[in-house]
Amino acid sequence: MSTTPTPRLILETLLPHLKVAAAYARFLQPKIAALPAKESGDNFFAAALTDADLAIQNLVEVVLLGTFPEIRFYGEEYESSGNTKYFRAVELGSTDDYLVTLDPIDGTKFYMDGHSNYQIILSILNTDDFEAVIAISPAQNTYYYALRGQGAFQGTLEMDLGTCKPLRVTSSKPHVLLGWEMSSIAPALEAQYQVIDVATDYSSDKQIPNLNGILSGDLSGAVIKSGKFIDGAALAFLAREAGCIVTTLDGSTLPPLHTCKEYSRSGLIVATSKEVHQHLLQATQNLF
C-alpha cells in the first residue's frame, strides 16, 4: 500500500471541494425537496434525508477515490452510494491506517426547516482517537477544524487552514443542551442553567443551538446519550481541542475508538469548564 497521507494533507486537499459542497448546500436549501425518509433512525433528525446528503457525499467520494484511492472511507449514506464498493474498507484500520468519515449534512432537519446551523462534518480517525475534524457551517460562512494535539481553529470560508485563527473557548452562555433521551436530568440542572432539550424544544420556526454551540459560546455544556463518529463524537473532539472537558457520562476518560461499537461512542458530557462539568456529572448520576 502507498504511503498514507497525513491528516493535514487530507484536510488541505479536501477543503476546496468542501467549500464547493458548502456553496451547493447553501444554494439548495430553499429549494430542497425531501427524499423518502430513511428506514432506520431513532429520532426525526436521523430520519430526514435530502438530495444534498447524497450529492455532497458523492462529491467527497469522487475526490477521495481520485486523490487517495487507498483511503478507508465511511459516509453516512454509504448504503445508498454507488461508490462504497470502490473503497478499500469502511471500518477503522490499524494504527495510522486512517478512516475518513463524513456527515454530509449534520442536522438535516435543521437544514430542511431553513435553519442556519446545519453542518458538513468530515473527520479522520485513527484506531484510538480522532486525528482531525473539520466542521463547515455553510449558511454562517464559517468553519472549525482541529488536528490532534494541535488545538482548534476557526475561519471564514474565504480562508484556508493556515490563515484560520486559534480557537479557545473561554466564555459561554449559561445554556445546556440535552440530547435525545436525556430529558430526565433536566430538573437537576434547571436552577442553574437554561436547559435546551432537543426532544421537546426543537421547533421548525425558532432555531435552537446544536452541539457546536459549545464552540460559538452559545452553550456551556451538553449531555448526549451517544456520540456517533461522524457527528457528535467529532464535535466533541473539536470542543476538546478548543479547551473543553469531554468525558463519558460517569466522568471517565473516553475509551479508544476501536473498542466502540456501531461507529459510536457511548454517552458524552461536554463542558466549557470544570464547574459546568461537575454540575453535568452530578445530574447524570440519576441515570445509574
UniProtKB/TrEMBL annotation:
Transmembrane segments: none
Name of protein: Inositol monophosphatase family protein
Binding site for Mg(2+): 76, 103, 105-106, 231
Swiss-Prot/TrEMBL cofactor(s): Mg(2+)
Gene Ontology MF, one: metal ion binding
Pfam families xrefs: Inositol_P (PF00459)
GO annotation, biological process: inositol metabolic process; signal transduction
Recorded superkingdom: Bacteria
Keywords carried by this UniProt record: Magnesium, Metal-binding
